[in-house]
User: Fold these one by one.
Assistant:
Number 1:
Amino acid sequence: MSSFRREHSHVSIKDIVYQVYENRVSRSLDRSRLPRHVGVILDGNRRWAKTVGATAADGHRRGADKISEFLNWCDEAGIELVTLWLLSTENLSRSQQEIDDLSEIIVATVERLAYQGHWKLHHVGDLKLLNDEHQKRITDAIASTQDSNGAWVNVAVGYGGRSEITEAVREFILTKAEEGLAADEIAAAVSIDEIEAHLYTRGQPDPDLVIRTSGEQRLSGFMPWQTVHSEYYFCEAYWPDFRRTDFLRALRAYELRDRRHGR
């Protein structure tokens, strides 16, 4: 009993210390300098699972459970738009069992976010990479949120940066061809604005801050067009272990940077 009390007391004190620290960091942030759009590469679910002796599916479920909590932190900070990279095109090269488990977890997560009614969801990626049932469930869930007045949340499912740019160029060419332009006229019409008009994120501001968990320091194809001037924050924690403290540290690091946008 005394051992339990010491352990329980230790956890409680740790929680209190974190709460005090988080409140202090939160109060110190200059809200006028915080990002409008935060992109998140939710990495480390499988490695987290290995550390606790769980299955990959358990890791993905634990990571999915973190998402609503994270979005609430973003709401508290006044973030207008969040992009969550939930499933990359490269993920689809894993074993069929893991793909099936992961796809179902992701679809159920999108449905749960829609059911909560706090956010306006938007899909980013190629849903055709999923089976018909999952495509319909995600499409229906997203459609049910379009009257929401909350923050925008991009759910990147079946997303790959090179695929997005390839598809944008293809759509641009087809659109111009339908307008009756010849090949040389289409080539002359190519511009940054024209390509951006065919991206999955058309009409949205580019990510100001990109957070990647798990200690990996690369983007792995996350929005290569949109992130040319983004600030990056790499966190050692696996996504299931990502804390509000880590998020506030990312915001503080962003706030302190001198953003020159290449100038």
Number 2:
Amino acid sequence: RSNNTPLSLAPQITAVNPPVLTPAGDGTYTLSGSGFSSGQTELLLETVALTETAASPPSAGEFRVTPTTLQFVSPNLAPGPYAVRVRVSQVEALPAWWVVLP
């Protein structure tokens, strides 16, 4: 018998090439993947954390969680590229997407 070994699983983000998200007509970005859990998922643009909401669509600076998608609207940030970071239960997914804000 051996000691217990902690195991953490990272969420999976579906990536494509090029890895730049474009918003829908209402300004909502959508990420697909798996392992997302309401109340345990964090979404950041670089170091700026967005707030989880149940509203659909989310407002500026908010994101909405389903088991296979994250929908978000960027907060009012300076123009430029931002890495999209996703954590579930404090385990971060591999980097997969960028947004370029006008």
Number 3:
Amino acid sequence: MSDLNGLSIVAIVPAAGVGSRMKADRPKQYLSIGHQTVLEHTVEKLLSHPAILKVIVAISEGDPYYPELSISQRVDVIRVAGGKERADSVLSGLEYVSLHKLSDWVMVHDAARPCVALADIDRLIAESIAHKCGAILATPVRDTMKRGNREQSVDHTVEREALWHALTPQMFKTEQLTHALSSALAENVAITDEASALEWLGESPALVAGSADNIKITQPEDLALAEFYLTRNKG
């Protein structure tokens, strides 16, 4: 069992999304960077961290691509059924963790973020266990922020001080995150990331400054940038 600060962590990767903005013939997590898909890069990066025991991947029912991947045969990668929304997929993973008593802590990471740095994960773990309700990776907003109006014109400038871009992974206690997501979904609360479910309960997760390299592949041009970061970091 992998160990860091006495912890063995399970990572949950919701990967049931379609990714329509990529305008590709398949979901973005199955597009290739080099000789591997985005999802394979992401899962293998997580498993390369010494504290991450297993990765649970939430996949849509009838997904024809996942069974073709090499990670589908790994004993430390577990497939669960993904849901309609991100929160449903994460809850599916959480239920597996709880049922099999795998870990008191979980780390949720976007399938389309293959460039996360192991050093950032180190800091996330340290801050999460020191904080009462966990932590998220994030980067401070650098650009001038504008609020638009209905005519898609500038309404006003938003003060960027204290604004952060939320990234993943986000790390929380298994039981607490399960309760937060289940409660929020039952009340039809819009959940955009795991931290927002904790916020709805009145909690304030810690912000851990992460690398701007940790991009989320969303647009076609993001693939080339991710390939650059992955290739550079291998060197």
Number 4:
Amino acid sequence: MLEQSLELAAFNKALHDQQSEIRRLALVARYANDSVIVADPTGHILWVNEAFTRITGYSREEAIGKRPGTLLDGADTSVATTTAIEDAVASGRPLRTELINYRKDGTKIWVETNQVPIYNEAGNVEMIIAIERDVTADKYHMEELAVAKRAAEDGERAKTQFLATMSHEIRTPMNGIIGMADLLNDESLNTEQKGYVETIRYSAEALMRIINDILDFSKLDAGKSVINPVDFDLLGCVESAVSILRPKAIEKGIFVELNCLTPVPPLLRGDDGRIRQIVINIVGNAIKFTKHGGVTIDLSCYDNSEGSLVTLDVSDTGIGIAEDRVEQIFDQFSQANGEITRQY
């Protein structure tokens, strides 16, 4: 008799604990921010929480006995998605997906639904619980970001196209100015007049270099920079670039020295125009920021399995770059120190 009483007490406690757990879960479901739908094995609604009414506009009484799709699907609801949901219900499989639903007032909303089948002890589906979240704001936000991204990309392409077009258009009259300056320089001019012509030519060439830099930058920005390999004389290429810069160094009273540290093949294959441009940019920059002493270029060339490895070391006695600013000079249109612009 005592043993039966103990078993009954244990059963009652287990039943009480189970009922308490069910009540707690019911409270959680009732006051959850997400919509909670409890449906029978065929997908017909048995119960919904208050969030369902707040999100969809349908009361519990209007929802019970109907299938969610009957209430909420509309013209823009994906047929493939609704078919997948029906298949999951019929086969007792869990499913997580997104679809377009319609509120009672006709407002279109995006819903993320996560439906899970609940099985009884016999292994059959007893009910289906679906937890649904209104993700309309997230969807619109993503669309706005996509539109903004496309607008930014279009703007960038327009800017790049403008830079390229402007650079090409300006180069033609600039070449005319340089050509006329050369013709004037061949005339019988006095020293002062020759100085004026040289100033015109130097300024035009400086502007042309800026224009070429803009054009190259716009090509790089658009991913259209092209390497044109040819057979060329490496040493002659570097020497020609240095010869262009040497008059400026002489004017400043500094030296420019080119040292060939290793034998250099008579011909290599590469883009000599790009190499010349690199030398002019780097050595020209070194001359610009050097007041005393000079600039040294060390050229070396070593054969390897892929061809030749060419190294150009440029060193100068100029102002240098602070160690904590080295990476900054690789940013677009940046210098190591903002005051440099005013000084140079």
